Amino acid sequence: MESLFCPPDFATLPRTGTPRSAQEEPVSGSAAVEHRTTPTDRARPQRQWSLFLAGAFASGEEQRTMSTADLVRQEGVTLETCTQIVRFCAEVGLFRRVGRGKFAVTKAGWAIAQHWQQDQTYARLLLQGVFRSHWSVPASDTALRSGPLPVEELGKHLLSDLPGKPRRGVYLVEWQAMAFLVHRDQQGMVWPTPALSAAADAGIAALPAAPAGTEPDQPSEQDLNALWGMTNRELDEMDSGRCCAILDNLTRLVKSTAT
């Protein structure tokens, strides 16, 4: 299985986008999180991430409204594939949907895309800050409390009664690994990281669905500054022994994913 940790080629990614209408209206119905969205099975996680980056840079710091049709032409994917990727990124908090077939990058998504160019580890920690509210976080925490699982088994658990091919669940695990919420070792076993249980125990990942016709709240600055499931304030109050242990775990995890 191709790992999400292999960075795509960013040399050809656009840095600007075509301005759209400044009038942004929330999308009713599907824009609200009315069901559990999973990554598309039409593209590998690496390709999904590449498309997110392309959409983020096209929307830009100004958060310009973009059309999925424009992204389809730019990236050479089908409309269905693009729509599913945008939908999942919107649920995670990287994009927001702005009318039918349109989207814009969120403040958090723009920060992640920018930092990915210079420091991918920091960008992945920012991704963790927005991914902590996804429905799959408590589901993975529950499944992994009794020990590590093969990636396919955890993916099957996450997919559960949801429609779609089994690799949707596997790709969701890859996204969680991207956000340092789980770690997949060389044997294909998935282990929880401290951030996974911290997010689930804090109830951050159990947010109710947004009412129809409203846009889910964007993560606060405190959430964006979260590291391993803890805010800056919690880090400040941590004793030196626990801090060293967490930093050691982070160092080992980064080294293992870089090999």
Query: What is the residue-averaged pLDDT?
Result: 78
The global form is globular
The helix-strand sequence is HEHHEEHHHEHHEEHHHH
Q: What is the topology, as strand order, of the major beta sheet?
A: 1-3-2
Count all strands and give the number: 6
What is the first-to-last residue Cα distance? 16 Å
> Which regions are unreliable across 5 or more consecutive residues at pLDDT < 50?
1-34, 204-216
Radius of gyration: 18 Å
Main beta sheet strand tally, sense and closure = 3 strands, antiparallel
Tally of separate helices? 12
Q: How many separate structural domains?
A: 2
Report on the architecture of this protein:
The chain has 259 residues and is mainly α. The chain has two domains: 29-113, Orthogonal Bundle (Arc Repressor Mutant, subunit A); 119-258, no CATH class. Helices cover 49% and strands 7% of the residues. A three-stranded antiparallel sheet has the order 1-3-2. A three-stranded antiparallel sheet has the order 4-6-5. β5 (182-184) and β6 (189-192) form a beta hairpin. It is globular, with a radius of gyration of 18 Å. The model is unreliable at 1-34 and 204-216 (pLDDT under 50).
Give the topology.
Blueprint: H1 45-59, E1 66-67, H2 68-75, H3 79-92, E2 95-97, E3 102-105, H4 107-118, H5 120-131, H6 136-144, E4 149-150, H7 151-159, H8 167-178, E5 182-184, E6 189-192, H9 194-201, H10 221-224, H11 232-236, H12 240-258
Antiparallel strand pairs: 1-3, 2-3, 4-6, 5-6
List key phrases describing it.
globular; single chain; three-stranded antiparallel β-sheet; disordered N terminus; 7% strand; Arc Repressor Mutant, subunit A; 2 domains; mainly alpha; 259 residues; 6 strands
